[in-house]
Amino acid sequence: VAEEDIKNCENGIFKEDEKLKCYMFCLMEEANLADDDGVVDYEMMVSIIPEQYTDRVTKMIFACRHLDTPEKSKCQRAFDVHKCSYSKDPEFYFLF
């Protein structure tokens, strides 16, 4: 994945690129927040965030969780949730 594509996400520019989409999923998988089948543990994701940010992250992530549907690939689901998370709180978004 191009470093530029990763940095662009933090500015709301989400390139429709399969490598970027799978990179997003891989980050979650490597952090043990998703299993091999692409099932993301959103409660676990929120639990590892520092307490002072919990409310903000919870609102951002859970507002987008509905986009994580099994008919899409795990990479597409990760991408959709990230893109939506940015739209919900652009100032706080980070590539998790």
Automatic annotation (TrEMBL):
GO terms for cellular component: extracellular region. CDD domains: PBP_GOBP. GO terms for biological process: sensory perception of smell. Keywords: Secreted. It is found in: Secreted. InterPro entries: PBP/GOBP, PBP_GOBP_sf. Pfam families: PBP_GOBP. Its main location: secreted. GO terms for molecular function: odorant binding. SUPFAM superfamilies: Insect pheromone/odorant-binding proteins (SSF47565). PANTHER family: GENERAL ODORANT-BINDING PROTEIN 19A (PTHR21364:SF2). Belongs to the PBP/GOBP family. This is Odorant binding protein. It comes from Chilo suppressalis (Asiatic rice borer moth). The gene is obp.
